[in-house]
Amino acid sequence: MSESTLVLIKPDGVRRNLIGEIIRRCEAKGYVVAELKKITPTRELLAAHYAEHEGKVFYEPLMEFMLSGDVVAIRLTGHRVIEGFRSIAGATDPTVAAAGTIRGDLSRDWGTKVVQNLVHGSDSVESAQRELALWF
Ligand code: DAT
Ligand code: MG
After folding, report:
1. Residue range 79-91, pLDDT digits in tens
2. Quick one: which ligand is closest to 96's CA?
3. How many domains does the chain have?
4. In angstroms, what is the span from residue 115 Cα to ligand 1's centroid?
5. Which CATH number is 75's domain given?
6. What is the ipTM of this complex?
7. Which residues belong to any copy of the Nucleoside diphosphate kinase-like domain (predicted)?
């Protein structure tokens, strides 16, 4: 039984030329890149994507950050990939994300209003279905 998750390589990952390194880690883990595209997201798309965070203090900085450059959207597939990708991505806060994870190894806190942590991964089957429908 296979499932899909939405992975986004955020503008910091694209700017830092980490697209290959991030995809390499997904593939090395055994997941499959089923669909992939590089896009310039609109505010409307991001507002729908991050609807759960509307009203939070970091919402506007998060939107500005996500609008600051291109994003790579990936439909990543494999048994338990939703949970598995979040495991290899690491904790939201890159300062405390474990070594060995994407965020722990490759990102840090730069003192910006919103944490720049390289990747997004859907957090549940429902989120994955909703987000994949938005981006693909
Ligand atoms: P995740 O991306 O680990 O699922 P999230 O969905 O709670 O985390 O938040 C979305 C993004 O918003 C997250 O990747 C970074 C930013 N963010 C979350 N909480 C934050 C906070 N307390 N301060 C600053 N940025 C935050
Ligand atoms: Mg989230």
Report:
1. 999 999 999 999 9
2. 1
3. 1
4. 7
5. 3.30.70.141
6. 0.97
7. 2-136
CA of 36 relative to ligand 2 center, distance in Å = 20
**Domain containing 50: what range?**
3-135
Span from the CA of 52 to the centroid of ligand 2 (angstroms)? 9
| pTM exceeds 0.90, yes or no | yes
Distance CA 114, CA 81 (A): 26
79 is catalytic: no
Smallest Cα–Cα separation from 119: which of 43, 66, 41? 66
Query: CB under 6 Å to ligand 1: residues?
Result: 53, 58, 62, 92, 114-115, 117, 120, 123
